[in-house]
């Protein structure tokens, strides 16, 4: 199981205050097909350009890359295709010991 000290939070000052999150030994999983989907398209892409596809996600963040890994958090948000995928999500921890802010 991952050690909760395997991540660090670095305050950063820019136009607005933000934090840089650096996680080690945590793995993000997403499933777009099948019965256990963790993302879903809500806006189809433009038929000519492919741009604009938008999907919502509830991706699992686990403590190992193995199939039996424990879900410790969720990446909940959306992603939009605009030539490259742009992702925005909140990390919602489900395991209390990982919440150290």
TrEMBL record:
It comes from the Eukaryota. Pfam families: Dirigent. Keywords: Apoplast, Secreted. It is found in: Secreted, Extracellular space, Apoplast. GO terms for cellular component: apoplast. Belongs to the plant dirigent protein family. Homodimer. Dirigent proteins impart stereoselectivity on the phenoxy radical-coupling reaction, yielding optically active lignans from two molecules of coniferyl alcohol in the biosynthesis of lignans, flavonolignans, and alkaloids and thus plays a central role in plant secondary metabolism. This is Dirigent protein. It comes from Triticum aestivum. The lineage of its organism: Eukaryota, Viridiplantae, Streptophyta, Embryophyta, Tracheophyta.
